[in-house]
Amino acid sequence: xxxxxxxxxxxxxxxxxxxxxxxxxxxxxxxxxxxxxxxxxxxxxxxxxxxxxxxxxxxxxxxxxxxxxxxxxxxxxxxxxxxxxxxxxxxxxxxxxxxxxxxxxxxxxxxxxxxxxxxxxxxxxxxxxxxxxxxxxxxxxxxxxxxxxxxxxxxxxxxxxxxxxxxxxxxxxxxxxxxxxxxxxxxxxxxxxxxxxxxxxxxxxxxxxxxxxxxxxxxxxxxxxxxxxxxxxxxxxxxxxxxxxxxxxxxxxxxxxxxxxxxxxxxxxxxxxxxxxxxxx
Length: 281
Prior knowledge:
Helix content is 17%, strand content 37%.
């Protein structure tokens, strides 16, 4: 009886510290922060970061465009999570891994530099997580949670899947404020950018190649309300996914008004650089 009383006192005073408590802690929304994805079209490098200062700095100074939130990572080590390491390779592009041995070997290679831990990812599928795919192209890796982007990438000859780097959470805290792209709109570079708000504001995504459609841009959570089109680029907008339905040709910045028939109706985009097609649909 004395043991039971003491045990109950511990539970009510300090809480139960068994596996259930660990699992509950891992479900706390405050533990998860946005993992921002940014792209540099000049050297085709992608940076994933949870730092608002770094994100804003490389957008303003280093030619990166904001591609929004890739997912959410744990801000501290939780049960069933692993560190997501970031390295800058000698080739000038970034590499990500959850394998400590791989990280150590690469960081000891001349020209490579460890940039620490970006955050903590789930090491197996669990509630509210999505796979963070690791894909290998001819000269660099691509990391994505987007199934369509993964499938499009793997259609290119020579590209292959290296499995899953970990699992990101599908919801959490947007520490930089704003919508999916945070509080700072990307500075237009030399490639098109779609925006969730009129006048080139709000969450944004760079599109350097054909955009077949995405649930993220069909009202959950965004719709396309304006587009930056740098000189030398030509877009064909479609009212349905996979380049179907009515189309609209665009070769300059575009921000339609609510009464415009295309306002919030764009589902896919063909992207051309240089001369436009002879008869774009």
